[in-house]
């Protein structure tokens, strides 16, 4: 019997993080970290499932779930073996749905839904191969990886032949790097001390903890009030000393002129990068900020909609650091394109993570990048936030400021069934009890 996809189940999962001000920043004061979660099931004898999700911060998660549901008919009935041998075909079919495409194209809720489904399929493919996704990708042949990328709109910056050459060059020395990766892990930095809603006392305590945990970079949220930012940067710098990198993140709060002025006002604290200084769509604005605030680096990417905007940011010399996100764009296929673009332009990738499960996912992409493409971890760090990992079956593991390489097959995307039952909105155990308490 040919095994086929039999179900695509969705879940609206929300965690009440806003009550502790975890995740608070200048643009997002009260996020309830949420996942529009998808499970792809098959009738194969191995019983394996593909798990994926996209990340939202609460209200609207039901819209994200509805967008995933709109893709169901593209997935049901597909042959499992053919799908896992070539996820790129599904990726192209989803992007190419001529009616759904109107809702983008390749941006926003519909595109994030595609990312959730495509990532679930990659989870399934890696599980069937018995490998963690990073190894599944790093073991793949360059020509096959190139076949997984949609080069439409990219060839003025990167051709398939150039991509294949980058991958062929990138895999040299892979064996030694893999030994190092398995031993030491991949460098991380932490945002846990720097949420805007935290007191100075909590900021100092968590910054001190970050040093004790072996991190060599922390990040602070900025952009709500300049006097507060100056005080908080001073507090953090006093705790960490001059040698630890301190990035700052404005979460799109500023106009171009404000971004330049504000970043210069914080320059005495030696910020390593200014993240999301302005609108993620403003390619030329980022370029102007970068020219004005150097040597402070400009970083962005967690809200960059797709590979085409990344291409422009690179072409325009607008960023020093590319912050791809595992669940914002159209899944692993598009992130392969983005990693290849970054390699072509020689810009380091320091992925966005945190939220719900973003650390779990994105570690695989950086580890693949290290083994098979960029071949270095110099000036490269994955964001780390210590929230909500306990809900995952194979949570990230950190040691001495590094992500340890996952060993379980798949994309580390799977949540515990109990977490799904408890935090399903609005009828999970937690939210139902909460509604009773609130008298709603
Ligand atoms: Mg950020």
TrEMBL record:
Q: Which reaction does it catalyse?
A: L-fuconate = 2-dehydro-3-deoxy-L-fuconate + H2O
Where does the sequence pass through the membrane?
none
InterPro entries named in the record: Enolase-like_C_sf, Enolase-like_N, Enolase_C-like, L-fuconate_dehydratase, Mandelate_racemase_C, Mandelate_racemase_N_dom, RHMD-like
Q: What is its EC number?
A: 4.2.1.68
**Domain Mandelate racemase/muconate lactonizing enzyme C-terminal, chain residue ranges per copy:** 200-296
Question: What SUPFAM superfamilies has UniProt attached to this entry?
Answer: Enolase C-terminal domain-like (SSF51604), Enolase N-terminal domain-like (SSF54826)
Q: List, separated by semicolons, the cofactors it needs.
A: Mg(2+)
Protein's name according to its UniProt entry: L-fuconate dehydratase
UniProtKB keywords: Lyase, Magnesium, Metal-binding
A family per Pfam = MR_MLE_N
């Amino acid at each position: 019997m040919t095994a086929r996809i039999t179900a695509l189940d969705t879940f609206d999962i929300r965690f009440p993080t806003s009550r502790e001000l975890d995740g608070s920043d200048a643009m997002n004061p009260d996020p309830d970290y949420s996942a529009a979660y998808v499970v792809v099931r098959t009738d194969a004898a191995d019983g394996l499932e593909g798990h994926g999700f996209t990340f939202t911060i609460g209200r609207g998660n039901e819209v994200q779930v509805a967008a995933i549901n709109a893709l169901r008919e593209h997935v049901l009935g597909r042959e499992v073996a053919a799908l896992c041998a070539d996820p790129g075909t599904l990726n192209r079919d989803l992007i190419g749905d001529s009616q759904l495409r109107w809702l983008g194209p390749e941006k926003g809720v519909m595109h994030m839904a595609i990312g959730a489904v495509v990532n679930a399929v990659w989870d399934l493919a890696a599980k069937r191969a018995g490998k963690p996704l990073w190894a599944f990708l790093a073991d793949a042949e360059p020509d096959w990886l190139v076949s997984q990328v949609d080069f439409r709109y990219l060839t003025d910056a990167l051709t398939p032949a150039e991509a294949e050459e980058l991958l062929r060059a990138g895999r040299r020395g892979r064996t030694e790097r893999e030994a190092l990766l398995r031993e030491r892990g991949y460098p991380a930095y932490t945002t846990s001390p720097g949420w805007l809603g935290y007191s100075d006392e909590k900021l100092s305590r968590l910054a001190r903890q970050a040093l004790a945990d072996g991190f060599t970079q922390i990040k602070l949220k900025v952009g709500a009030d300049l006097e507060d930012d100056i005080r908080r940067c001073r507090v953090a710098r006093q705790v960490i000393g001059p040698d630890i990198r301190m990035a700052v993140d404005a979460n799109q709060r500023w106009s171009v002129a404000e971004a330049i002025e504000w970043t210069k006002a914080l320059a005495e604290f030696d910020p390593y990068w200014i993240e999301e200084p302005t609108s993620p769509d403003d390619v030329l604005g980022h370029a102007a900020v970068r020219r004005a605030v150097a040597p402070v680096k400009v970083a962005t990417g967690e809200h960059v909609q797709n590979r085409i905007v990344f291409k422009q940011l690179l072409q325009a010399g607008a960023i020093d650091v590319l912050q791809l996100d595992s669940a914002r764009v159209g899944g692993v296929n598009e992130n392969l394109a983005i990693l290849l673009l970054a390699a072509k332009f020689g810009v380091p990738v320091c992925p966005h993570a945190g939220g719900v499960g973003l650390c779990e996912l994105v570690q695989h992409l950086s580890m693949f990048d290290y083994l098979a493409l960029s071949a270095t971890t110099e000036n490269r760090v994955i964001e780390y936030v210590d929230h909500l990992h306990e809900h995952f079956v194979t949570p990230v593991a950190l040691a001495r400021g590094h992500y340890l390489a996952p060993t379980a097959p798949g994309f580390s995307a799977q949540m515990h069934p109990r977490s799904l039952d408890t935090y399903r909105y609005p009828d999970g155990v937690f939210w139902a009890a909460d509604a009773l308490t609130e008298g709603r």
